[in-house]
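Reviewer 2 asked us to include a model.

Predict the structure of this chain.
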Amino acid sequence: MKYFVTLAGNIGAGKTSLTAALARRWGWDALFEPVVENPYLADFYLDMRRWGFHSQMFFLSRRLNDYRGLLERPGSVIQDRSVYEDAEIFACNLRRQGYINERDWQTYFGLYSAVASLLPPPSLVVYLRASAPTLLRRIRQRGRDIERSISPDYLEQLNSLYEEWIGRFDTCPTLIIDTNDLDFAHDEAHLTRVAEMIRAALKVDKVGKVEG
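Predicted model (structure tokens):
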């Protein structure tokens, strides 16, 4: 049986690390977020008002292109961040903060809504919950230059939107995992614990091919 699992969560929640680890463990294809490839991201963190709309349009177009490729893959897939978060969390926050004006918002959200209604839903969305202090610590540890200016307030704003979104999201089943005390990137026991939680949520005896 083919599965499509999406990992959702704030910046620094551990989505990329967990995506890579579970893909290796289960023998699944991994679909990563195109952060490094976004030509607007560095400018965005320096001037969100000027570059917010451009950055979100890049993510939306790239995500939709990824979905097309996803449908062509024969096996199961685990995805680092969903198209839903791009619109419902990040673009919405920029609008609330006044960094995306109403005209640009209507253009963006209209496109998102039209296309999202046609997309096949994931088998499961896994929300990796983490506090702002935890997120900030992880962001600093990985040391990406473009993320140096991210503030605790910005992470708190996004966390609030994540809680609102996951509370009303009903497009597919969801699983919430508190990651504040988990280090699945370096602790095999933590990774196994998370993998078992996802497997149970999918309600199957085995998930893909377990390696090692």
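The radius of gyration is 17 Å. The beta strands are 4-8, 29-31, 77-80, 124-129, 174-178. We have added this to the supplementary material.
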